[in-house]
Amino acid sequence: MNALGQIVNLKPTIRDMGKKLLLVEDDIVFSKLISKFLDKNGFEVSDAKNGKDALQIMDADHFELAILDYRLPDMNGLE
Fold first, then answer.
1. What pTM, to 2 d.p., does this model score?
2. Is residue 72 a contact partner of residue 26, using CB atoms and an 8 Å limit?
3. 55 - beta bridge partners?
4. Among 26, 44, 49, 60, which has the minimal tally of Cβ within 10 Å of its Cβ?
């Protein structure tokens, strides 16, 4: 509740986190579909096709969120 007695939702949403995200997906068609959807909804999307590329991109830039494919050709989405 805030100072005016109004109930305030303190749980952050994806839109509160920021607009910059990394999409790691080796399926090119699916990656384009997701990227286009996110772009239309105001997100800045960078994409990588494998884990190695994703790690290089993450070293060069900062992202508020990453969407990872669990089964990538060179590693899984948890590594």
1. 0.73
2. yes
3. none
4. 60
